[in-house]
User: Fold Aspartokinase from Selenihalanaerobacter shriftii.
Amino acid sequence: MLLNRRQDDMGLIVQKYGGTSVADTTRIKKVAERLVKRKREEDQVIAVVSAIGDTTDELINLSNEITDQPPKREYDMLISTGEQVSVALLAMAINELGEDVISLTGSQVGIITDDLHTKAKILEIDSSRLEKELAKDQIVVVAGFQGITINDDITTLGRGGSDTTAVALAAKLDADICEIYTDVNGIYTADPRMLDDAVKLPEISYDEMLEMASLGAKVLQPRSVEFAKQYKIKLAVKSSFNYESGTHVKEVEELEKGKVVSGVACNTNEVKISLIGVPDRPGIASKVFNTLAESSINVDMIIQNVHRGEVNDITFTIDDEDLSQAKVILNELNKELTIEDIIYDAEVAKVSIVGAGMVTNPGVAAKMFEALADADINIEMISTSEIKVSCLMDEAKSQQAVKVIHDKFNLGEKQRVSDQNV
Amino acid sequence: MLLNRRQDDMGLIVQKYGGTSVADTTRIKKVAERLVKRKREEDQVIAVVSAIGDTTDELINLSNEITDQPPKREYDMLISTGEQVSVALLAMAINELGEDVISLTGSQVGIITDDLHTKAKILEIDSSRLEKELAKDQIVVVAGFQGITINDDITTLGRGGSDTTAVALAAKLDADICEIYTDVNGIYTADPRMLDDAVKLPEISYDEMLEMASLGAKVLQPRSVEFAKQYKIKLAVKSSFNYESGTHVKEVEELEKGKVVSGVACNTNEVKISLIGVPDRPGIASKVFNTLAESSINVDMIIQNVHRGEVNDITFTIDDEDLSQAKVILNELNKELTIEDIIYDAEVAKVSIVGAGMVTNPGVAAKMFEALADADINIEMISTSEIKVSCLMDEAKSQQAVKVIHDKFNLGEKQRVSDQNV
Assistant:
């Protein structure tokens, strides 16, 4: 039935609204208006919604009042109520505007995940109920960020998980587009909250977006971009506060013209961990990183310095939300490994340039290093891929670093008008 | 497996904690201590929990900011998050004390209800998961007040629904006792917040409790008492703020001695509705009451006065939470019935005496009316059953009424010592 209807040239769009877009009941009513407007233009609309503004933080505060080590299953049980509140309220607001609507939790929408609580991965989507509700010609409001294990336990998908919910549903139902609504107008050459001069990009490739997301552009969750790329879901990042066109995320060959450097990203959510004086035996590093991986802690940048004969220093970065768990793991490991010292440094930032054209343009990294050197900013670690170069530095210098790199590659508003990009 | 274990003389208790017992994280930790203590004494403990203190009101406020007519399905979706928050936090607190624990939502615990949202009735309980979790020798914390329809929609059981959840689970699992924890020490001869002189009853019959509950004693939900009576579940009403013995609710033949009047209840949550000048045709009254019943609006007291030949006055009372819905229904009905006037009066209270021995003691009602007459309190409506007499009156007079009736039947602390009850 659904497929029959779709063949009749009717659109299906998935829209995702983040926490700032539904910050209070006034904003929820605005989002309801947008959805109703779109429903009356298109045919089928699914809205994926995050928790209201600071609800999640309030729930975390309650949890902290009880314990600093909550069982992760119970943490998910607690936190997932945030989205349930916002979908119910949004459904009420849509109903108030006279459109048929139903809200669904992650469980009801059939988002089956693994049991890795607080950062679960979607295994499959049983979309039968969702399709049934869509076929009733109503707006379906879906709780983002959450799913359910095959054992019927509530899970959450980790930071920014609502993006993944939206893209996964768009993929499952072969939606025409997945629109991610946020409080900025799209993807910029740098964080516009950090740099006035930043320019909105009308389009960007999946790969660039993936790097931007991973690198702390904070607009899209990396996993959602991977999903979109894999299933070729058209993505758009837009503001829920206006009707501007936003940034469209596409295959690189669909972009109007490749740029060497598309933007500068800054991530201050990393922590640098230095293991000082690690015994120089085979398998030590793999032991450390395997143990972290078993606890689903992603390690980002890694440096190993052989410098004192029998001992090495290993330095790496992780996401700061994994820090307390990493400390427990490393202290435990240290009982058998006899590492001389473990140093944690949260006052670091990773500043990166991203660009699909970088791979064919030698000298881009050197130009970035030059900009940093000219500004007397010390680089602590470097990592590169085909489309990005990242430098770890003192967090206090990161804003200046973004500015000098942005200027160096002429990414700003004024340069754009007269200059070529590189 | 569960039954095998039970045969080995191990106890199963169900405890229900209301909103004031889990008013904040400090209180939640206290409840966790009680549960852990009990778990270490008994063998299997199920805790049924209400929403934290004023959470439900906060959620209702959010709903009111959106609309004054929320779809009931979405209202349940919203409100049910309150219990989900409290069970997760209580499970965290129990885990922190070193006991194994799991929290379950109404859906996870298999409480299947009809689809009468906001006041759903339990149809059946699929206790397979609950039994599986109990068999793991852990405390199971269950979200009260909520269930799920066969179509996987979240429902709530209406005011005080957590009591029903607790008793229904106790019945399903043949628990040894169901303990209802609240912020008073048990059932009193009158509301101790209204009358200093009220005395705690060590025991009371199901039928008396049922009348007390229905009449506004506010301690137990009537449906939960019916359930307990039907399945012969031992009930106890206790305070979560101390370890006193509370009030035990039993079969009347198990009571130590039958009293004529056990207590005086006062319900200020009723609204009196007068239909003035109703055409005197057969079927009009049944039309009115059937239509209200179809919307699950319970009508309590009813008087019909034939007084002007062709028209009647019909006066009845309903719960004040049904008032806005009743107004809509009656206005609609009035289009065809041509009632002269409809008068709503919320400033009424129903004061009642309850006692299992009343049926065999004539003159009890007369004694109550005398007490009210002596205090110059006008009785607007009267209803009686085998074990209760209720009088509707001006709400402003209700506290005085409770006092004079309580005195008349010598129910107070001082009288108890020297006098006999009637």
About this structure: Chain B touches chain A at residues 25, 28-29, 59, 62-63, 65-67, 69-71, 73-75, 77-78, 80-81, 84-85, 87-89, 91-93, 95-96, 102-103, 105, 107-108, 129, 152-154 (CB under 8 Å). Residues 1-8, 417-422 of chain B have pLDDT under 50 and may be disordered.
